[in-house]
Amino acid sequence: MRHPDLLVVDSPDMPRRQVSGLGRQGKLAIAILAAMVVLLAFGLVPPVIAGLLAAGAMIMLRVVRLEQIYRAMPWTIVILIGGLIPLSTAIKQSGAADEMARVLVDLVGEDSPYLLLIAIIVLVAILGAVVSNVATALIVAPIAVSAATGAGVSVQTVLMAVAVGAAASFLTPISTPGNMMVMGPGGYRFGDYWKLGLPLTLWFLVVAVFWVPVIWPF
Known about the structure:
The chain is built from eleven helices and no strands. The chain has helices at 13-18, 24-41, 47-60, 66-72, 75-93, 96-108, 113-128, 133-151, 155-167, 177-186, 193-215. It has two domains: 1-73, no CATH class; 75-218, no CATH class. It is globular and about 60 Å long. 22% of the residues are buried. Helix 2 packs antiparallel against helix 3 and helix 7 runs antiparallel to helix 11 (193-215).
């Protein structure tokens, strides 16, 4: 079927072959998912334990095979995060985070926590345009914690603003894998992203600066 608003990026037979009826494995997967949600909702175990229990149950009950897990695992992202966690720790323990936070606090002053949030979000947006949003959050987090401590504001508020800012990865195709995935099929160029990405980033900045403190007060 031809339609001017439909862009086919893969053979329709490929997803059709992946669709099957809800058999025993499907029902087990739903049951395991429901059990994990119950554990998380009632706080019976820490979230990481709930996730590991659900993953282990999937494997033990043969809902998925180890080979399928290995093929589906985004190893590039796993290696990236694994490499950036020590970098984030090094930034904190070496004193670099405290020094950068001091400069940031001196620049915006200690009287307005909103200016501090704006400065941090701008830093996140600049880094997020050249590296992935995951890397940006890991790099900026220790700086944000030190800046919040130095300015005497809530660390939770600042970190939630960092999370919102890191999610605003719209300026370049290298910010997130999703941006890169649609670049080829959509026929986009590198410079096309900021045209819509800039207004979206500004909107995320407004949310991070004015709405986050409402939910997580200073």
